[in-house]
Amino acid sequence: MYLLSAMGFLLLSIGFLGIFLPVLPTTPFVLLAAGCFAKSSPRLHQWLHNTQLFGSMLKRWEQNRCVSPKTKITAISMIVLFGGSSLAFAVPAGWPQFGTALLLLIGLVSVARLKTCSECMQE
């Protein structure tokens, strides 16, 4: 129980960093954190659901297993724009660039494969 709660906080922290760091996707880490909290602590799970930042995304995910088009487009745009800029201008050539490109690709594929909510199409 404590291990899952700790893992939830670690994943949530990584997801939060993903808001600011272009190589890290936010959505998959927040969804995994919610899963850890759901199994370990109803109180933490409810707390995460009530946050303004992630609450609506989590409720939508748990009800319909989908993300809003806005969330998906924003995530893909940020990965391409900021991740691509980092890759082109800030990451040293060679293995660091290859590793960064691989992480960006994993993030893009992860986000692109998430189902888009049809009832949210007007957002």
* Rg on CA atoms, Å: 15 Å
**Strand-pairing-aware structural class:** mainly alpha
How many helices?
A: 6
The oligomeric state is single chain
Percent of residues in helices comes to over 70%
Mean pLDDT: 88
Tally of domains:
1
The stretches of 5 or more residues where confidence is low (pLDDT under 50) are none
**Bulk shape:** globular
Tally the beta strands: 0
Biggest β-sheet: count, sense, barrel?
none
| Secondary-structure element order, N to C | HHHHHH
Question: Approximately how much beta-strand content do the residues carry?
Answer: under 5%
Distance between the termini: 37 Å
Walkthrough of the structure:
By secondary structure, the chain is mainly alpha-helical. The protein has one domain. It is 74% helix and 0% strand. The protein is built from six helices and no strands. It has helices at 2-20, 27-40, 42-49, 55-64, 69-89, 95-113. Helix 5 runs antiparallel to helix 6 (95-113). The longest helix is centred in the middle third of the chain and has 21 residues, at 69-89. The radius of gyration is 15 Å and the shape is globular. The chain starts with a helix and ends in a 10-residue tail after the last helix. The mean pLDDT is 88.
